From TrEMBL:
Domain (DUF112) ranges: 18-185
Listed name of the protein: Tricarboxylate transport membrane protein TctA
Keyword Transport tagged: no
Pfam families assigned: TctA
Keywords attached to this entry: Membrane, Transmembrane, Transmembrane helix
Residues passing through the membrane, by range: 17-47, 112-133, 145-161, 167-186
Species annotation: Halalkalibacter wakoensis JCM 9140
Keyword Transmembrane helix belongs to the record: yes
Coiled-coil region: none
Organism lineage: Bacteria, Bacillati, Bacillota, Bacilli, Bacillales
Amino acid sequence: MLDNIIYALTHVFDLKIILFMIIGVVVGIVVGGLPGLSVTIAVALILPFTFGMDPALAILMLLAVYCSGIYGGSIGAILLNTPGTAASAATAADGFALTQKGKTGQALGMSLYASVIAGLLSGIVLLFVAPQIAKFALGFGPPEYFTLAVFGLTIIAAVSGKSLAKGLVMACLGILVSTIGMDLLMEIRD
């Protein structure tokens, strides 16, 4: 595993890759900072430009757009009290309060540091934990899937509160949407 990490790091520090990651960061911050445009839209907009690229270069550029777009959403949340992304909704409360006190730079700096540190730590944890999670998930069978489905339905009932009918309608709609693309013949053959 250490060999793979070293191999990846040698590719990441290539000048061409760093240049395209910088372009991705700029695009992500600009699109994430605009209220109404989400990180998903930023990735979708930049995706056609990556079709002719080297796969590693394209994925790193898309990753840069996504990660910086999440941070970019906090800019609108801090300055305008309008989160640019759903992930920055909590930032709007504390960040805008600091802006009203005249500490805009401090709020933006804390948001940047928190985003970078959390991104690095979660990436490192995922690097070491993902193989074990994948082995666990591949062991799932029909009883586990049934249990997950029942758990999801009970959560819907719990959060529906007084409007249980609306919750059940949305649960049925969710189940209907989840069946799109399922091929019974493929399921039987597997």
